[in-house]
Sequence to fold (810 residues):
Amino acid sequence: MAVVVKKFGGTSVADLERIQAVAARVKRAVDAGDQVALVVSAMAGVTNQLVDYCVKISPLHDAREYDTVVATGEAVTSGLMAMALQQAGVAARSWLGWQIPIHTDDAHSRARILGIETAELRRRMAAGEVPVIAGFQGLGPDNRVTTLGRGGSDTTAVAVAAALGADRCDIYTDVDGVYTTDPRIVAKARKLDKITFEEMLEMASVGAKVLQTRSVELAMKQRVRLQVLSSFEDKPGTFVVPEEEIVEQELISGVTYSRDEAKVTLLRVADRPGVAAGIFGPLAEANINVDMIVQNVSPQGDTTDMTFTVGRADLERALSVIEAHRGEIGYGEVRADAGVCKVSVIGVGMRSHAGIASTMFRTLAEKGINIQVISTSEIKVSVLIDDAYTELAVRALHGAYGLDA
Amino acid sequence: MAVVVKKFGGTSVADLERIQAVAARVKRAVDAGDQVALVVSAMAGVTNQLVDYCVKISPLHDAREYDTVVATGEAVTSGLMAMALQQAGVAARSWLGWQIPIHTDDAHSRARILGIETAELRRRMAAGEVPVIAGFQGLGPDNRVTTLGRGGSDTTAVAVAAALGADRCDIYTDVDGVYTTDPRIVAKARKLDKITFEEMLEMASVGAKVLQTRSVELAMKQRVRLQVLSSFEDKPGTFVVPEEEIVEQELISGVTYSRDEAKVTLLRVADRPGVAAGIFGPLAEANINVDMIVQNVSPQGDTTDMTFTVGRADLERALSVIEAHRGEIGYGEVRADAGVCKVSVIGVGMRSHAGIASTMFRTLAEKGINIQVISTSEIKVSVLIDDAYTELAVRALHGAYGLDA
Fold:
């Protein structure tokens, strides 16, 4: 008998038929002897509709009221799912964030979970009842509904699993696991049986939208065994586990890409202390996230060129900020390019193996792909290339690191 | 300065534009110096959609989960309305049933309000904030969401007004007040400035769907001054008040009709003690509401005929129940007629004036309309007639009692 938290996202509960299919699936787990707690998202499309209402009625709306409105989507699903389970013969009860309660701070619309009261949940689970917990929401210190930010139901699931000391947290999605790369680009992509938390985090941060980054961080910190699996097929998915659980680690676990990037280059920036702060301070104040940064060695000695990337959606704002601070920064010219792609190779194995980066550079060079910017972390090497070469680069790298099935 | 509770129903908050129009209207009241608490319903159509989900996912669904699901409609409106008020420059805050809390019993889906904690609401209203209260819902003794039954937002508004000791409770609807009769049938129908609680109750019970009956009962008991007025036009509506406030009472306040009736006649029923219980006991057990009952004097001495009316939607079920109990009841034949209409004249003045009923019977006789069943209460005379004569009867009675404008 295992204690398992199962989380079903919006596409898994998109309509009544799918809610009933989830109930049937949960019933099988209960019949097999597991103690199950469910976490559910809003039915697909519902949250977008509610957010749209909020934006239209008041562009600068009160985040407290936003939370009151958007948290209702998960409440509806939790009630309907409890009914579907009861109909299938499984004892079940819905739980909204304030009922458990899931205590959060008061950072409305992006609240952090502070603690979860589990005594009543444990008592009922031990008696065979399945709690159906509305994801994405909690109760703030002033007795008001809070929400955790988009994708927050993953975080709810992990936090509930940690609080319950669950054996496993299953995240059901519309993909059946984590792949070595995007199967739509590389036919030979393989589903991974296991991946480390660190690798999953790097993957999430570079565009593999399987799990919300925060939920992976929390699982890593709380040592919750995560499984990503399909809500439509009944087969094992990918386990996200601590590094020591993976005995034979491949050098590289995956190749990812992100087309959400744009490159900005400032030419002839004064080469003096404080100039980087002069550029990135104002961008940070404008809440623009800067990813890769490269400063070339100054050829003339008194000026240099500075290149960085921002989210493509932020490009126009970033250029306005740079222009507004032209005087303080001091630069000759700005060039922007939205036609770029960031391609990354990720693997904890690279900590102990040299030559990972050089394999990447050589492989891309052989295909005639120019590398515009390079950035590395302990377990990731990323390069910025011309967007047009994305598929070619990903396919070549997948083969070069021996990932092809 | 007055303390006023204002309730806006589903059509008044049907979309974002109407919500903004309500906010503008509330702002005018606040600017004029009133302390206002709002009660809002779900946006038109939302509750039906949620109820439909519940029925489809589980025909015999758990009422606790039904309440969790359907109460979300009002939560959405309360958050959006608070935003709209803030946008209009009015301090506002949404309040769900559990947050106030509005304590109810545990009769899920038809709960009764037991008490409302108002200290915090009063404090905020005194500081100029408008509480936007989600109607129709409360908090049960087991910390679960309850709902008050359809139309329950009217009851929420009256209960909040009573708890606050409000000077007035304004119920905004899609009509601009209570009329002497249906203006669609009688062009000369007049809007009443005032009507007594008792009359309003009788009107509600015979088809004038302006206010939920329970809310009027509660207002009468708690002596809350009610006003029914238009949410689309800015003019006074009809006040529902204690009888002593109406100095010059007309004999009759209104003529109403209901086409929701069906007539059932049992021929040759044994004329012995207990036979009425034998008929109406099983109907009550089947939750079928019986309205008018007439037992004719027995001509032969040993059998009699029994006629009664049920809701038209219940007719088939009523006939099944009667058939199933044929043995115990003992009757010769059953006749059913769904082509009937109940026409009523209502007025507290009839308590002290004779001749009201005879005016009714004479007026109908002059038009050649046959009266099938008669029933009377202290302030109402109802007759059952052939449905085809409805408009003729209503128009004739409206003139006969001097109600024409």
User: Anything to note?
Assistant: Residues 260 and 312 of chain B are 5 Å apart (CA to CA). The mean pLDDT of chain B is 92. Chain B has 13 helices and 20 strands. The longest strand of chain B covers residues 261-270.
